[in-house]
Design brief:
The chain has 604 residues and is an alpha+beta fold. The strands form five sheets. Strands 6, 9, 10, 11, 17, 20, 21, 22 and 23 form a nine-stranded mixed β-sheet that branches. A five-stranded mixed beta barrel has the order 1-2-3-5-4. The protein has a five-stranded antiparallel β-sheet with strand order 12-13-16-14-15, with helices on both faces. A hairpin with a 2-residue loop joins strand 1 and strand 2. Helix 4 packs across helix 15. The longest helix is centred in the N-terminal third of the chain and has 23 residues. The two termini are 40 Å apart. The site of aspartic acid (ASP) has 9 residues, from strand 22 and strand 23.
Protein backbone atom coordinates (compact mmCIF):
# COMPACT_ATOMS: atom_id res chain seq x y z
CA UNK A 1 0.00 0.00 0.00
CA UNK A 2 1.52 3.27 -1.01
CA UNK A 3 -0.56 6.14 0.29
CA UNK A 4 -0.29 7.11 3.96
CA UNK A 5 -3.66 6.86 5.69
CA UNK A 6 -5.13 10.05 7.16
CA UNK A 7 -4.25 9.96 10.86
CA UNK A 8 -7.36 9.22 12.92
CA UNK A 9 -7.98 7.54 16.30
CA UNK A 10 -7.53 4.12 14.65
CA UNK A 11 -4.32 4.49 12.70
CA UNK A 12 -1.75 6.80 11.17
CA UNK A 13 0.26 4.10 9.34
CA UNK A 14 -0.16 0.79 7.56
CA UNK A 15 1.20 -2.15 9.51
CA UNK A 16 3.20 -3.37 6.52
CA UNK A 17 4.87 0.03 6.01
CA UNK A 18 6.64 0.18 9.35
CA UNK A 19 10.30 -0.40 8.59
CA UNK A 20 13.71 0.56 9.97
CA UNK A 21 13.33 4.10 8.60
CA UNK A 22 10.46 4.62 11.07
CA UNK A 23 12.54 3.44 14.08
CA UNK A 24 12.76 6.07 16.78
CA UNK A 25 9.28 7.45 15.99
CA UNK A 26 5.74 6.62 17.11
CA UNK A 27 3.03 4.87 15.13
CA UNK A 28 -0.62 3.93 15.49
CA UNK A 29 -1.87 0.89 13.59
CA UNK A 30 -5.08 -1.14 13.38
CA UNK A 31 -5.90 -4.63 12.27
CA UNK A 32 -6.41 -8.25 13.23
CA UNK A 33 -4.50 -10.39 15.71
CA UNK A 34 -2.71 -12.80 13.38
CA UNK A 35 -1.26 -14.71 16.32
CA UNK A 36 -0.14 -14.17 19.91
CA UNK A 37 2.90 -15.63 21.64
CA UNK A 38 3.70 -15.35 25.35
CA UNK A 39 7.45 -15.40 25.96
CA UNK A 40 9.36 -14.92 29.18
CA UNK A 41 7.11 -12.24 30.60
CA UNK A 42 6.56 -10.50 27.26
CA UNK A 43 3.62 -10.86 24.90
CA UNK A 44 4.22 -10.76 21.16
CA UNK A 45 1.35 -10.21 18.75
CA UNK A 46 1.56 -10.26 14.97
CA UNK A 47 -0.86 -7.58 13.84
CA UNK A 48 -2.20 -7.92 10.32
CA UNK A 49 -3.88 -5.44 8.01
CA UNK A 50 -4.16 -5.63 4.21
CA UNK A 51 -0.69 -4.18 3.77
CA UNK A 52 1.11 -6.81 5.83
CA UNK A 53 2.13 -7.80 9.32
CA UNK A 54 3.97 -5.98 12.10
CA UNK A 55 5.13 -7.43 15.39
CA UNK A 56 3.73 -5.80 18.53
CA UNK A 57 5.39 -6.23 21.95
CA UNK A 58 3.60 -5.76 25.24
CA UNK A 59 5.87 -5.16 28.27
CA UNK A 60 4.42 -5.61 31.76
CA UNK A 61 6.07 -2.33 32.82
CA UNK A 62 3.83 -0.42 30.34
CA UNK A 63 0.91 -1.00 32.70
CA UNK A 64 -0.69 -4.04 34.30
CA UNK A 65 -4.09 -3.31 32.77
CA UNK A 66 -2.66 -3.10 29.23
CA UNK A 67 -0.68 -6.28 29.80
CA UNK A 68 -3.63 -8.27 31.04
CA UNK A 69 -5.72 -6.95 28.12
CA UNK A 70 -2.97 -8.28 25.85
CA UNK A 71 -3.17 -11.64 27.59
CA UNK A 72 -6.85 -11.82 26.68
CA UNK A 73 -6.21 -11.24 22.95
CA UNK A 74 -7.16 -14.14 20.70
CA UNK A 75 -6.75 -14.83 16.99
CA UNK A 76 -8.72 -12.41 14.78
CA UNK A 77 -9.58 -9.92 17.51
CA UNK A 78 -9.61 -6.43 16.02
CA UNK A 79 -7.43 -3.89 17.81
CA UNK A 80 -5.86 -0.49 17.41
CA UNK A 81 -2.51 0.12 19.11
CA UNK A 82 -0.05 2.98 19.44
CA UNK A 83 3.53 3.04 20.62
CA UNK A 84 7.18 3.42 19.73
CA UNK A 85 8.74 1.84 16.65
CA UNK A 86 12.03 0.31 17.81
CA UNK A 87 14.73 -1.69 16.11
CA UNK A 88 14.80 -5.35 17.06
CA UNK A 89 17.95 -6.78 18.57
CA UNK A 90 20.15 -8.28 15.86
CA UNK A 91 19.30 -11.89 16.71
CA UNK A 92 15.57 -11.11 16.58
CA UNK A 93 15.47 -9.69 13.03
CA UNK A 94 13.03 -11.61 10.80
CA UNK A 95 14.28 -11.43 7.22
CA UNK A 96 11.02 -13.00 5.92
CA UNK A 97 8.95 -10.03 7.00
CA UNK A 98 9.08 -6.59 5.34
CA UNK A 99 8.75 -5.14 8.83
CA UNK A 100 11.15 -7.72 10.30
CA UNK A 101 13.78 -5.23 11.45
CA UNK A 102 11.48 -3.42 13.86
CA UNK A 103 8.68 -3.98 16.34
CA UNK A 104 6.06 -1.73 17.87
CA UNK A 105 6.27 -1.41 21.66
CA UNK A 106 2.65 -0.92 22.58
CA UNK A 107 1.82 1.91 24.96
CA UNK A 108 -1.96 1.94 24.44
CA UNK A 109 -4.54 -0.37 22.92
CA UNK A 110 -8.23 -0.27 22.00
CA UNK A 111 -10.10 -3.53 21.60
CA UNK A 112 -12.43 -2.86 18.65
CA UNK A 113 -14.02 -6.29 18.20
CA UNK A 114 -13.68 -9.79 19.56
CA UNK A 115 -13.73 -12.87 17.34
CA UNK A 116 -14.89 -16.41 17.81
CA UNK A 117 -12.07 -18.90 17.24
CA UNK A 118 -11.75 -19.16 13.44
CA UNK A 119 -12.63 -22.60 12.03
CA UNK A 120 -9.17 -22.91 10.47
CA UNK A 121 -5.86 -21.15 11.10
CA UNK A 122 -5.40 -18.05 8.98
CA UNK A 123 -1.70 -17.66 9.68
CA UNK A 124 -0.44 -20.75 7.87
CA UNK A 125 -0.39 -22.19 4.38
CA UNK A 126 -2.14 -25.41 5.37
CA UNK A 127 -4.15 -26.97 2.56
CA UNK A 128 -7.82 -26.65 3.40
CA UNK A 129 -10.86 -28.36 2.05
CA UNK A 130 -12.29 -26.01 -0.57
CA UNK A 131 -15.87 -26.32 0.64
CA UNK A 132 -14.75 -25.24 4.11
CA UNK A 133 -12.95 -22.28 2.57
CA UNK A 134 -15.93 -21.27 0.46
CA UNK A 135 -18.40 -21.61 3.33
CA UNK A 136 -16.16 -19.35 5.42
CA UNK A 137 -15.06 -17.15 2.54
CA UNK A 138 -14.86 -13.97 4.64
CA UNK A 139 -12.18 -15.59 6.76
CA UNK A 140 -10.54 -17.34 3.82
CA UNK A 141 -10.24 -13.97 2.06
CA UNK A 142 -8.12 -12.75 5.00
CA UNK A 143 -5.43 -15.29 4.12
CA UNK A 144 -2.38 -13.95 2.33
CA UNK A 145 -2.68 -16.06 -0.84
CA UNK A 146 -6.19 -14.69 -1.41
CA UNK A 147 -5.13 -11.10 -0.72
CA UNK A 148 -2.22 -11.49 -3.14
CA UNK A 149 -4.49 -12.96 -5.83
CA UNK A 150 -7.06 -10.17 -5.55
CA UNK A 151 -4.38 -7.47 -5.52
CA UNK A 152 -2.93 -9.01 -8.69
CA UNK A 153 -6.40 -9.19 -10.21
CA UNK A 154 -6.86 -5.50 -9.54
CA UNK A 155 -3.49 -4.71 -11.13
CA UNK A 156 -4.46 -6.74 -14.21
CA UNK A 157 -7.71 -4.82 -14.63
CA UNK A 158 -5.98 -1.51 -13.97
CA UNK A 159 -3.33 -2.29 -16.61
CA UNK A 160 -6.04 -3.23 -19.09
CA UNK A 161 -7.97 -0.02 -18.44
CA UNK A 162 -4.89 2.20 -18.64
CA UNK A 163 -3.41 0.54 -21.71
CA UNK A 164 -6.61 0.51 -23.72
CA UNK A 165 -7.58 4.04 -22.67
CA UNK A 166 -4.17 5.21 -23.90
CA UNK A 167 -4.94 3.49 -27.21
CA UNK A 168 -8.21 5.44 -27.62
CA UNK A 169 -10.58 2.67 -26.57
CA UNK A 170 -13.78 3.72 -24.78
CA UNK A 171 -15.13 1.66 -21.91
CA UNK A 172 -18.85 1.25 -22.52
CA UNK A 173 -21.30 -0.86 -20.52
CA UNK A 174 -23.82 -3.15 -22.16
CA UNK A 175 -26.95 -4.68 -20.59
CA UNK A 176 -27.07 -7.69 -18.32
CA UNK A 177 -30.80 -8.22 -18.83
CA UNK A 178 -30.96 -8.92 -22.52
CA UNK A 179 -31.78 -11.46 -25.20
CA UNK A 180 -30.04 -14.71 -25.83
CA UNK A 181 -26.64 -14.36 -27.58
CA UNK A 182 -25.49 -17.65 -29.01
CA UNK A 183 -21.96 -18.48 -27.79
CA UNK A 184 -22.88 -22.13 -27.84
CA UNK A 185 -23.88 -22.58 -24.20
CA UNK A 186 -27.22 -22.68 -22.42
CA UNK A 187 -28.64 -19.33 -21.28
CA UNK A 188 -29.50 -18.31 -17.77
CA UNK A 189 -33.03 -16.94 -17.97
CA UNK A 190 -34.69 -14.23 -15.91
CA UNK A 191 -38.50 -14.20 -15.93
CA UNK A 192 -40.12 -10.84 -16.57
CA UNK A 193 -42.77 -9.79 -14.04
CA UNK A 194 -43.99 -6.89 -16.18
CA UNK A 195 -44.29 -9.05 -19.26
CA UNK A 196 -45.46 -12.40 -17.88
CA UNK A 197 -44.39 -15.44 -19.85
CA UNK A 198 -41.39 -13.60 -21.30
CA UNK A 199 -37.79 -13.92 -20.24
CA UNK A 200 -34.59 -12.00 -20.34
CA UNK A 201 -31.42 -13.98 -20.95
CA UNK A 202 -28.23 -13.10 -19.12
CA UNK A 203 -25.55 -12.38 -21.74
CA UNK A 204 -23.16 -15.20 -22.65
CA UNK A 205 -21.04 -12.30 -23.90
CA UNK A 206 -21.64 -8.72 -25.08
CA UNK A 207 -21.01 -9.92 -28.65
CA UNK A 208 -23.93 -8.32 -30.44
CA UNK A 209 -23.87 -5.09 -28.46
CA UNK A 210 -20.21 -4.53 -29.23
CA UNK A 211 -20.91 -5.06 -32.91
CA UNK A 212 -23.77 -2.56 -32.71
CA UNK A 213 -21.37 -0.09 -31.10
CA UNK A 214 -19.07 -0.49 -34.11
CA UNK A 215 -21.96 0.12 -36.51
CA UNK A 216 -22.79 3.15 -34.35
CA UNK A 217 -19.31 4.51 -35.02
CA UNK A 218 -17.57 4.11 -31.65
CA UNK A 219 -14.50 2.64 -33.41
CA UNK A 220 -12.76 1.18 -30.35
CA UNK A 221 -14.69 -0.29 -27.42
CA UNK A 222 -13.78 -2.36 -24.42
CA UNK A 223 -15.51 -3.56 -21.30
CA UNK A 224 -14.67 -5.63 -18.26
CA UNK A 225 -17.82 -7.65 -18.75
CA UNK A 226 -19.54 -10.28 -16.67
CA UNK A 227 -20.72 -13.19 -18.82
CA UNK A 228 -23.09 -16.00 -17.91
CA UNK A 229 -23.15 -19.50 -19.37
CA UNK A 230 -25.19 -22.33 -17.94
CA UNK A 231 -22.69 -25.11 -18.56
CA UNK A 232 -21.45 -28.13 -16.70
CA UNK A 233 -18.52 -26.77 -14.77
CA UNK A 234 -14.88 -27.73 -14.88
CA UNK A 235 -11.81 -26.46 -13.05
CA UNK A 236 -11.46 -23.53 -15.42
CA UNK A 237 -15.15 -22.66 -15.75
CA UNK A 238 -17.65 -20.73 -13.65
CA UNK A 239 -21.30 -20.06 -14.47
CA UNK A 240 -20.48 -16.36 -14.30
CA UNK A 241 -17.08 -15.16 -15.34
CA UNK A 242 -15.37 -11.95 -16.32
CA UNK A 243 -14.12 -11.12 -19.79
CA UNK A 244 -12.07 -8.35 -21.23
CA UNK A 245 -14.29 -7.75 -24.22
CA UNK A 246 -13.11 -5.49 -27.02
CA UNK A 247 -14.00 -4.52 -30.56
CA UNK A 248 -12.43 -2.30 -33.25
CA UNK A 249 -13.58 -0.86 -36.59
CA UNK A 250 -11.75 -0.66 -39.94
CA UNK A 251 -9.31 -3.39 -38.94
CA UNK A 252 -8.05 -6.75 -40.06
CA UNK A 253 -6.63 -9.66 -38.04
CA UNK A 254 -3.19 -8.07 -37.72
CA UNK A 255 -4.59 -4.89 -36.16
CA UNK A 256 -6.53 -6.74 -33.48
CA UNK A 257 -3.62 -9.09 -32.81
CA UNK A 258 -1.15 -6.21 -32.62
CA UNK A 259 -3.04 -4.23 -29.93
CA UNK A 260 -3.68 -7.35 -27.92
CA UNK A 261 -0.13 -8.63 -28.09
CA UNK A 262 1.09 -5.36 -26.63
CA UNK A 263 -1.48 -5.57 -23.87
CA UNK A 264 -0.77 -9.23 -23.14
CA UNK A 265 2.97 -8.63 -23.01
CA UNK A 266 2.33 -6.04 -20.27
CA UNK A 267 0.14 -8.47 -18.35
CA UNK A 268 2.67 -11.29 -18.64
CA UNK A 269 5.33 -8.90 -17.32
CA UNK A 270 3.03 -7.94 -14.45
CA UNK A 271 2.83 -11.59 -13.43
CA UNK A 272 6.57 -12.08 -13.94
CA UNK A 273 5.92 -14.73 -16.59
CA UNK A 274 9.00 -15.63 -18.54
CA UNK A 275 7.70 -15.49 -22.14
CA UNK A 276 9.43 -14.19 -25.25
CA UNK A 277 8.22 -10.76 -26.44
CA UNK A 278 5.61 -10.49 -29.21
CA UNK A 279 4.94 -11.13 -32.03
CA UNK A 280 3.69 -14.49 -30.87
CA UNK A 281 3.82 -17.45 -33.19
CA UNK A 282 0.71 -18.22 -35.23
CA UNK A 283 -0.28 -21.78 -36.02
CA UNK A 284 -3.07 -22.92 -38.33
CA UNK A 285 -5.92 -24.85 -36.73
CA UNK A 286 -5.29 -27.90 -38.95
CA UNK A 287 -1.66 -28.10 -37.88
CA UNK A 288 -2.57 -27.78 -34.20
CA UNK A 289 -5.14 -30.56 -34.53
CA UNK A 290 -2.70 -32.78 -36.42
CA UNK A 291 0.36 -32.32 -34.21
CA UNK A 292 -1.25 -31.80 -30.81
CA UNK A 293 -4.79 -33.13 -31.20
CA UNK A 294 -6.23 -29.88 -29.89
CA UNK A 295 -7.02 -26.33 -30.97
CA UNK A 296 -5.43 -25.21 -27.70
CA UNK A 297 -2.19 -27.13 -27.87
CA UNK A 298 0.05 -27.40 -24.84
CA UNK A 299 3.51 -27.31 -26.43
CA UNK A 300 5.50 -27.22 -23.19
CA UNK A 301 6.23 -30.91 -23.57
CA UNK A 302 6.84 -33.21 -26.56
CA UNK A 303 4.72 -36.25 -27.41
CA UNK A 304 3.80 -34.80 -30.78
CA UNK A 305 1.31 -36.69 -32.89
CA UNK A 306 2.47 -38.10 -36.24
CA UNK A 307 0.17 -39.20 -39.06
CA UNK A 308 1.42 -42.59 -40.27
CA UNK A 309 -1.51 -43.32 -42.60
CA UNK A 310 0.62 -43.24 -45.75
CA UNK A 311 2.85 -46.05 -44.51
CA UNK A 312 -0.20 -48.26 -44.04
CA UNK A 313 -2.25 -47.71 -47.19
CA UNK A 314 -1.46 -51.20 -48.47
CA UNK A 315 -1.53 -52.85 -45.05
CA UNK A 316 -3.14 -56.24 -44.66
CA UNK A 317 -4.02 -55.50 -41.05
CA UNK A 318 -7.79 -55.19 -41.25
CA UNK A 319 -8.31 -52.55 -38.57
CA UNK A 320 -5.92 -50.13 -40.24
CA UNK A 321 -6.91 -51.00 -43.80
CA UNK A 322 -10.63 -50.53 -43.27
CA UNK A 323 -10.17 -47.27 -41.35
CA UNK A 324 -8.04 -45.87 -44.15
CA UNK A 325 -10.44 -47.08 -46.83
CA UNK A 326 -13.26 -45.20 -45.11
CA UNK A 327 -11.19 -42.01 -45.27
CA UNK A 328 -9.91 -42.28 -41.73
CA UNK A 329 -6.36 -41.95 -40.42
CA UNK A 330 -3.79 -43.77 -38.31
CA UNK A 331 -1.91 -41.46 -35.98
CA UNK A 332 0.58 -42.19 -33.25
CA UNK A 333 2.80 -40.75 -30.56
CA UNK A 334 6.19 -41.84 -29.35
CA UNK A 335 6.14 -41.85 -25.56
CA UNK A 336 9.91 -42.32 -25.34
CA UNK A 337 11.66 -45.00 -23.36
CA UNK A 338 9.02 -46.05 -20.85
CA UNK A 339 8.24 -49.39 -19.34
CA UNK A 340 4.55 -49.10 -18.65
CA UNK A 341 2.79 -51.97 -16.88
CA UNK A 342 -0.12 -53.64 -18.60
CA UNK A 343 -2.61 -52.15 -16.14
CA UNK A 344 -1.51 -48.65 -17.14
CA UNK A 345 -1.81 -49.47 -20.81
CA UNK A 346 -5.40 -50.50 -20.06
CA UNK A 347 -5.99 -47.18 -18.29
CA UNK A 348 -4.56 -45.29 -21.25
CA UNK A 349 -6.84 -47.27 -23.56
CA UNK A 350 -9.75 -46.08 -21.43
CA UNK A 351 -8.60 -42.46 -21.86
CA UNK A 352 -8.59 -42.93 -25.64
CA UNK A 353 -12.01 -44.58 -25.53
CA UNK A 354 -13.51 -41.83 -23.41
CA UNK A 355 -12.30 -39.41 -26.09
CA UNK A 356 -14.27 -41.39 -28.66
CA UNK A 357 -11.69 -43.84 -30.06
CA UNK A 358 -12.55 -47.52 -30.54
CA UNK A 359 -9.26 -48.55 -28.96
CA UNK A 360 -5.57 -47.91 -28.56
CA UNK A 361 -2.69 -49.77 -30.16
CA UNK A 362 0.56 -50.05 -28.23
CA UNK A 363 3.98 -51.22 -29.36
CA UNK A 364 7.44 -51.38 -27.81
CA UNK A 365 10.39 -50.95 -30.15
CA UNK A 366 12.84 -53.82 -29.52
CA UNK A 367 16.65 -53.91 -29.92
CA UNK A 368 16.38 -55.41 -33.43
CA UNK A 369 13.81 -52.82 -34.53
CA UNK A 370 10.86 -55.21 -34.41
CA UNK A 371 7.86 -54.53 -32.17
CA UNK A 372 6.57 -56.20 -29.07
CA UNK A 373 2.88 -55.49 -29.60
CA UNK A 374 -0.41 -57.36 -29.93
CA UNK A 375 -0.53 -56.24 -33.57
CA UNK A 376 3.11 -56.94 -34.50
CA UNK A 377 2.24 -60.14 -36.30
CA UNK A 378 -0.22 -58.35 -38.60
CA UNK A 379 2.26 -55.82 -39.95
CA UNK A 380 5.08 -56.29 -42.43
CA UNK A 381 8.68 -55.54 -41.41
CA UNK A 382 8.66 -52.61 -43.82
CA UNK A 383 5.51 -51.14 -42.24
CA UNK A 384 6.96 -51.49 -38.75
CA UNK A 385 10.23 -49.89 -39.87
CA UNK A 386 8.51 -46.98 -41.62
CA UNK A 387 6.23 -46.19 -38.68
CA UNK A 388 9.08 -46.49 -36.18
CA UNK A 389 11.16 -44.20 -38.39
CA UNK A 390 8.37 -41.63 -38.76
CA UNK A 391 8.07 -41.50 -34.97
CA UNK A 392 11.83 -41.38 -34.40
CA UNK A 393 11.46 -44.60 -32.37
CA UNK A 394 14.51 -46.09 -30.65
CA UNK A 395 14.84 -49.41 -28.80
CA UNK A 396 12.78 -49.29 -25.60
CA UNK A 397 10.37 -46.62 -26.84
CA UNK A 398 6.67 -47.03 -26.32
CA UNK A 399 4.51 -46.10 -29.32
CA UNK A 400 0.74 -45.50 -29.03
CA UNK A 401 -1.54 -45.36 -32.08
CA UNK A 402 -5.19 -44.68 -32.84
CA UNK A 403 -6.98 -45.60 -36.07
CA UNK A 404 -10.19 -43.63 -36.57
CA UNK A 405 -11.69 -40.63 -38.31
CA UNK A 406 -9.31 -37.66 -38.28
CA UNK A 407 -11.28 -35.71 -35.61
CA UNK A 408 -11.59 -38.73 -33.31
CA UNK A 409 -7.92 -39.71 -33.69
CA UNK A 410 -6.92 -36.11 -32.95
CA UNK A 411 -9.18 -35.93 -29.94
CA UNK A 412 -8.06 -39.25 -28.49
CA UNK A 413 -4.34 -38.66 -28.96
CA UNK A 414 -4.76 -35.06 -27.75
CA UNK A 415 -6.36 -36.37 -24.56
CA UNK A 416 -3.61 -39.00 -24.20
CA UNK A 417 -0.88 -36.36 -24.53
CA UNK A 418 -2.35 -34.41 -21.63
CA UNK A 419 -2.87 -37.54 -19.56
CA UNK A 420 0.71 -38.71 -20.10
CA UNK A 421 2.13 -35.26 -19.36
CA UNK A 422 0.22 -35.23 -16.06
CA UNK A 423 1.16 -38.82 -15.14
CA UNK A 424 4.81 -38.41 -15.97
CA UNK A 425 5.07 -34.80 -14.81
CA UNK A 426 6.42 -33.66 -18.17
CA UNK A 427 5.70 -29.92 -17.96
CA UNK A 428 8.92 -28.16 -16.99
CA UNK A 429 8.51 -25.83 -14.01
CA UNK A 430 8.33 -22.17 -15.05
CA UNK A 431 8.10 -22.86 -18.80
CA UNK A 432 5.38 -20.95 -20.64
CA UNK A 433 4.22 -21.12 -24.21
CA UNK A 434 2.16 -18.50 -26.05
CA UNK A 435 0.74 -18.82 -29.55
CA UNK A 436 -2.17 -17.77 -31.73
CA UNK A 437 -4.30 -20.36 -33.45
CA UNK A 438 -5.59 -19.05 -36.79
CA UNK A 439 -7.27 -20.30 -40.00
CA UNK A 440 -10.15 -22.05 -38.26
CA UNK A 441 -12.91 -23.78 -40.14
CA UNK A 442 -16.20 -21.89 -39.82
CA UNK A 443 -18.22 -24.92 -38.72
CA UNK A 444 -17.89 -28.27 -37.05
CA UNK A 445 -20.41 -30.97 -37.76
CA UNK A 446 -22.61 -31.77 -34.79
CA UNK A 447 -23.31 -35.48 -35.29
CA UNK A 448 -25.87 -35.84 -32.53
CA UNK A 449 -27.96 -32.87 -33.69
CA UNK A 450 -27.20 -33.46 -37.39
CA UNK A 451 -26.29 -29.83 -38.13
CA UNK A 452 -23.41 -27.44 -38.58
CA UNK A 453 -22.35 -25.54 -35.47
CA UNK A 454 -20.18 -22.43 -35.68
CA UNK A 455 -16.81 -23.27 -34.16
CA UNK A 456 -16.65 -19.80 -32.64
CA UNK A 457 -19.99 -18.06 -33.16
CA UNK A 458 -22.10 -17.24 -36.20
CA UNK A 459 -20.91 -13.62 -36.41
CA UNK A 460 -17.33 -14.47 -37.42
CA UNK A 461 -16.58 -13.72 -41.06
CA UNK A 462 -16.48 -16.87 -43.22
CA UNK A 463 -13.88 -17.34 -45.95
CA UNK A 464 -13.51 -19.36 -49.12
CA UNK A 465 -10.43 -19.76 -51.32
CA UNK A 466 -11.98 -17.51 -53.99
CA UNK A 467 -13.31 -14.69 -51.81
CA UNK A 468 -15.58 -13.87 -48.91
CA UNK A 469 -18.75 -12.45 -50.46
CA UNK A 470 -22.17 -14.08 -50.33
CA UNK A 471 -21.68 -15.21 -53.95
CA UNK A 472 -18.31 -16.79 -53.06
CA UNK A 473 -19.97 -18.67 -50.20
CA UNK A 474 -22.71 -19.91 -52.51
CA UNK A 475 -20.15 -21.11 -55.03
CA UNK A 476 -17.96 -22.96 -52.49
CA UNK A 477 -18.51 -26.60 -51.62
CA UNK A 478 -20.98 -26.15 -48.75
CA UNK A 479 -20.61 -24.70 -45.24
CA UNK A 480 -18.23 -27.49 -44.19
CA UNK A 481 -15.65 -26.09 -46.60
CA UNK A 482 -15.81 -22.49 -45.32
CA UNK A 483 -12.96 -21.12 -43.26
CA UNK A 484 -13.36 -18.34 -40.75
CA UNK A 485 -11.40 -15.29 -39.70
CA UNK A 486 -10.98 -16.41 -36.08
CA UNK A 487 -7.94 -16.18 -33.86
CA UNK A 488 -7.46 -17.66 -30.40
CA UNK A 489 -4.65 -16.85 -27.99
CA UNK A 490 -3.46 -20.04 -26.33
CA UNK A 491 -1.15 -20.04 -23.33
CA UNK A 492 0.12 -23.27 -21.77
CA UNK A 493 -2.73 -25.25 -23.29
CA UNK A 494 -5.39 -22.79 -22.13
CA UNK A 495 -7.53 -20.74 -24.48
CA UNK A 496 -6.95 -17.37 -22.86
CA UNK A 497 -8.91 -15.45 -25.45
CA UNK A 498 -10.58 -15.70 -28.80
CA UNK A 499 -12.14 -13.47 -31.38
CA UNK A 500 -12.61 -12.81 -35.05
CA UNK A 501 -13.11 -10.37 -37.84
CA UNK A 502 -16.91 -10.16 -38.08
CA UNK A 503 -19.44 -10.29 -40.83
CA UNK A 504 -20.43 -6.75 -41.81
CA UNK A 505 -22.44 -7.62 -44.93
CA UNK A 506 -26.08 -8.55 -44.17
CA UNK A 507 -26.19 -10.95 -47.13
CA UNK A 508 -23.22 -12.91 -45.73
CA UNK A 509 -24.80 -12.90 -42.27
CA UNK A 510 -27.98 -14.39 -43.74
CA UNK A 511 -25.95 -17.17 -45.45
CA UNK A 512 -24.36 -18.08 -42.13
CA UNK A 513 -27.70 -18.11 -40.33
CA UNK A 514 -29.06 -20.36 -43.06
CA UNK A 515 -26.06 -22.69 -42.71
CA UNK A 516 -26.77 -23.21 -39.00
CA UNK A 517 -30.38 -23.96 -39.78
CA UNK A 518 -32.06 -20.60 -39.09
CA UNK A 519 -34.53 -19.75 -41.84
CA UNK A 520 -35.14 -16.11 -42.81
CA UNK A 521 -38.07 -15.78 -40.45
CA UNK A 522 -36.27 -17.22 -37.44
CA UNK A 523 -33.17 -15.18 -38.19
CA UNK A 524 -35.29 -11.99 -38.32
CA UNK A 525 -37.13 -12.94 -35.14
CA UNK A 526 -33.96 -13.59 -33.13
CA UNK A 527 -31.39 -11.35 -34.74
CA UNK A 528 -33.49 -8.80 -36.62
CA UNK A 529 -31.86 -5.98 -34.66
CA UNK A 530 -28.42 -7.06 -35.87
CA UNK A 531 -29.49 -7.59 -39.48
CA UNK A 532 -31.23 -4.22 -39.38
CA UNK A 533 -28.10 -2.49 -38.06
CA UNK A 534 -25.96 -4.14 -40.73
CA UNK A 535 -28.21 -2.55 -43.35
CA UNK A 536 -27.32 0.95 -42.15
CA UNK A 537 -23.66 1.21 -43.07
CA UNK A 538 -21.68 -1.30 -41.04
CA UNK A 539 -17.90 -0.79 -41.08
CA UNK A 540 -15.52 -3.76 -41.31
CA UNK A 541 -14.86 -4.68 -37.69
CA UNK A 542 -13.45 -7.32 -35.42
CA UNK A 543 -12.53 -7.96 -31.84
CA UNK A 544 -11.70 -10.43 -29.17
CA UNK A 545 -12.49 -11.42 -25.61
CA UNK A 546 -10.11 -12.71 -22.92
CA UNK A 547 -11.03 -14.58 -19.77
CA UNK A 548 -9.83 -12.39 -16.92
CA UNK A 549 -10.24 -15.16 -14.35
CA UNK A 550 -7.98 -17.34 -16.48
CA UNK A 551 -5.41 -14.61 -17.04
CA UNK A 552 -5.12 -13.95 -13.30
CA UNK A 553 -4.98 -17.67 -12.49
CA UNK A 554 -2.13 -18.07 -14.95
CA UNK A 555 -0.24 -15.01 -13.69
CA UNK A 556 -0.75 -16.00 -10.06
CA UNK A 557 0.43 -19.54 -10.77
CA UNK A 558 -2.72 -21.04 -9.28
CA UNK A 559 -4.51 -24.21 -10.32
CA UNK A 560 -8.11 -23.10 -10.07
CA UNK A 561 -9.88 -19.94 -11.21
CA UNK A 562 -11.80 -20.10 -7.94
CA UNK A 563 -8.60 -18.99 -6.24
CA UNK A 564 -8.65 -15.64 -8.02
CA UNK A 565 -12.37 -14.86 -7.67
CA UNK A 566 -13.51 -13.27 -4.42
CA UNK A 567 -16.81 -15.15 -4.22
CA UNK A 568 -16.80 -18.09 -6.64
CA UNK A 569 -19.27 -20.92 -7.13
CA UNK A 570 -18.43 -24.58 -6.58
CA UNK A 571 -18.18 -27.06 -9.41
CA UNK A 572 -21.90 -27.74 -9.03
CA UNK A 573 -22.70 -24.04 -9.51
CA UNK A 574 -23.68 -23.37 -5.91
CA UNK A 575 -22.38 -20.81 -3.46
CA UNK A 576 -21.80 -22.41 -0.04
CA UNK A 577 -21.51 -18.96 1.53
CA UNK A 578 -24.96 -17.59 0.68
CA UNK A 579 -26.62 -20.89 -0.14
CA UNK A 580 -27.49 -19.81 -3.69
CA UNK A 581 -29.26 -21.14 -5.65
CA UNK A 582 -32.17 -21.37 -3.23
CA UNK A 583 -35.92 -21.90 -3.37
CA UNK A 584 -38.15 -18.81 -3.56
CA UNK A 585 -41.57 -18.06 -2.07
CA UNK A 586 -44.65 -19.28 -3.87
CA UNK A 587 -45.75 -15.61 -3.91
CA UNK A 588 -42.65 -14.58 -5.86
CA UNK A 589 -43.34 -17.30 -8.41
CA UNK A 590 -46.97 -16.24 -8.71
CA UNK A 591 -45.97 -12.66 -9.41
CA UNK A 592 -43.80 -13.92 -12.21
CA UNK A 593 -46.51 -16.14 -13.59
CA UNK A 594 -44.43 -19.25 -12.88
CA UNK A 595 -45.11 -22.56 -11.19
CA UNK A 596 -42.35 -24.98 -10.29
CA UNK A 597 -42.84 -28.55 -11.43
CA UNK A 598 -40.08 -29.93 -9.20
CA UNK A 599 -39.43 -29.78 -5.50
CA UNK A 600 -36.33 -27.68 -4.86
CA UNK A 601 -33.29 -29.72 -3.91
CA UNK A 602 -31.90 -28.56 -0.62
CA UNK A 603 -28.15 -29.10 -0.57
CA UNK A 604 -26.60 -30.08 2.72
N1 LIG B 1 -17.86 -13.10 -27.89
C1 LIG B 1 -16.76 -14.01 -28.03
C2 LIG B 1 -16.65 -14.93 -26.82
O1 LIG B 1 -17.16 -14.62 -25.76
C3 LIG B 1 -15.45 -13.30 -28.18
C4 LIG B 1 -15.36 -12.51 -29.43
O2 LIG B 1 -15.65 -13.04 -30.51
O3 LIG B 1 -14.97 -11.34 -29.34
O4 LIG B 1 -16.03 -15.97 -26.91
Amino acid sequence: MRHVPRANPYRDSWAGDLDAARAGGDARVSGWVHNRRDHGGLIFVDLRDRSGIVQLVFHPENGAELFSAAERLRAEYVISVAGAVVRRETGQVNPNLATGEIELQVAEMQLLAESQPPPFPLDSDVELDEIVRLRNRTLDLRRRPMVDALVLRHEVVRTIRETLSDEDFLEIETPVLTRSTPEGARDFLVPSRLSPGNFYALPQSPQLFKQLLMVAGYERYFQIARCFRDEDLRADRQPEFTQLDLEMSFVDEDDVIDVNERLMAKLFALGGLDVPPPPYERMAYDEAMLRFGSDRPDRRFGLEIVDVSDALRLSEFKVFASTLQRGGVVRAINCGCRDVPRSQLDELTEVAKRAGAGGLVWAYVQEDGTWRSPIAKFLSDAEVATITGALGGLPGDLLLAVADTAPVAANALGALRLELAARWDLVPEGRHDVLWIVDFPMFGYNESEDRWDALHHPFSAPTTPTGNTAADLDAAGGPGSWGSRNYDLVVDGWELGGGSIRIHDPAVQRRVFAAIGLDEEEAEARFGFLLEALRFGAPPHGGIAFGIDRIVTLLAGRDSIRDVIAFPKTASGSDPLTGAPAPVDAKQLRELGLRSTVAARVDA
